[in-house]
Design brief:
four-stranded mixed sheet, about 190 residues, SAM-dependent_MTases_sf, elongated, Rossmann fold, about 15% strand, two-stranded antiparallel ribbon, alpha+beta, 2 domains
């Protein structure tokens, strides 16, 4: 409890979340996009729980965070669906995290954090973040994909394009004037 008598961040829900995390029951959290379910338009998170995090790949003391909010394709104006390849990507990340065997013919890559998609977070880090389990708080953005182009370079390219178009417009105006001068009026 805080000095004013209230519970920590999240109230009773925050206390329950803290106890579940400290008991090391949370294996993974997947942030899904909005409009995925017919009953709600808000984004949701799947909680993956495991009592035995030592089987397969030892995951004790860590939680996998997957940010899949950018996935999916609109089915209609209000509903979204995950594509089969996106589902396979999410499942592949989780299988690699667990060290679980995969279907025959599929190669298993070892788990690795992927900026913009997933990361493993240890329990002390979760405690620092007041046990908030939002993948958006822990998954680093993909820097290369989200990097904004340099303004000076972008402006110089746009300026060159504009000057080229002005020159081309002037040349076309001269051609039109020459063509009109050759027209004989009866």
């Amino acid at each position: 409890m805080l000095a004013n008598g209230s519970l920590t961040v999240g109230g009773r829900e925050g206390e329950i979340r803290r106890r579940i995390v400290e008991a090391d029951l949370v294996d993974g959290i997947i942030a899904l996009p909005a409009r995925l379910f017919y009953s709600t338009a808000i984004p949701v998170c799947l909680w993956l729980l495991a009592r035995d995090k030592a089987s397969g790949r030892d995951r004790r003391g860590k939680v996998l965070m997957i940010d899949a909010r950018d996935m999916g394709a609109m089915l209609d104006r209000t509903h979204l669906a995950l594509r089969p390849e996106e589902l396979a990507e999410i499942a592949g990340i989780y299988h690699a995290w667990r060290g679980a065997p995969v279907s025959e013919g599929m190669s298993q890559k070892p788990y690795a954090d992927v900026p913009g998609r997933c990361c493993a977070v240890d329990l002390p880090t979760l405690a620092e973040h007041e046990f908030i389990l939002a993948p958006t708080r822990h998954v680093r953005p993909a820097e290369a994909a989200n990097a904004a182009p340099d303004f000076a370079e972008q402006f110089a390219a746009l300026r060159r394009d504009l000057l080229d178009q002005i020159d081309r417009a002037a040349a076309l105006d001269r051609e039109i004037a020459d063509a009109l001068a050759r027209v004989e009026v009866p």
